[in-house]
Amino acid sequence: MSKPAKRPGANAPILVTMGEPAGIGPEIAVKAFHALGGRIDGRPLKLIGDASVFRGCGLKDEAAIVATQAKASRSPAKPATNNAKAVIEAIENAVAMARDGEAVAIVTAPINKAVLMHAGFAYPGHTEFLEALTSAPRAVMMLASEQLRVAPLTIHRPLASVPAAISTDAIVETGEIILSALKRFFRVSAPRLAVAGLNPHAGEDGVLGNEENEIIAPAVAKLKLRGHDVRGPLPADTMFHPEGRAHFDAALCMYHDQALIPIKTLSFWDGVNVTLGLPIIRTSPDHGTALDIAGTGKADARSMIAAIRMAAQMADAER
Questions:
Q1: What does the alpha-carbon distance between residue 316 and residue 319 come to, in Å, rounded to a whole number?
Q2: Hey, which residues does 112 pair with through a beta bridge?
Q3: Which of 75, 105, 151, 303 gives 142 a disulfide partner, CB atoms 3.0 to 4.6 angstroms apart?
Q4: What are the pLDDT digits (tens) for 196-212?
Q5: CATH classification of the domain holding 224
Q6: What does the alpha-carbon distance between residue 34 and residue 250 come to, in Å, rounded to a whole number?
Q7: pLDDT (tens digit, 9 = 90+) per residue, 5-34?
């Protein structure tokens, strides 16, 4: 059972983790820090990770760094497993500070999952690691922008394994976490949730698959019985045009790309990854490490700035 985080003080910072040192994570963390003047809505920003990595990306404000004990080195576009310990420690320390009320929220820069796994990391991504660190019963990944909010029921798993991984209980539990978060963090007083089908045309009355009739529709019925405004299962190919989006505040999709393709198409530079169901606030840019442009000066910090702004807005909603 996840314990609630301690209430942060009025001057508690928002923490931005280092992410993969060889990628654009530390670059955009520093660029965002400078663009925002080191503060967001009156709160200080702190960068957590190896100090030399942030210095190498142009940060001169030593007071803004929360240094990890583990060291890392930055060689753009050349990830190394010996940096994994510092990458992981930055996340662990940020979570601990947020849980202890020493930070109001955390914003995580992108990590290189393959490198971490080669170093013994046991989780497929940030979301699952944060779930374990906080003992949360279920962490939900939501991608959010001004145009769209989406959450995949299953996240980092092969597509072939998705049908066996979805269940009525998981849809109900995830749906309630999303609906609660819409009220709590996004100030949607009467949230509406759309639930996508798994198969083309939402199964076409069983002709193209039975998961809609056997798993998804019963979950939607349960959520409605609990008083929630929920629609589905809906054909995913007709959910995300402007008229379709007008009928819901968030969409629950069955797998990763079903959720992320529409939002990355609509909001690539201002989409934010938000982890729901945790006792802390966590956001992240909705892109990866971009090793191909690391160190070139081309990294765009807009998604990082959006993630920091959303973390601050969520913290404000908690006041």
A1: 5
A2: none
A3: 151
A4: 999 999 989 899 999 99
A5: 3.40.718.10
A6: 32
A7: 788 877 899 999 999 999 999 999 999 999
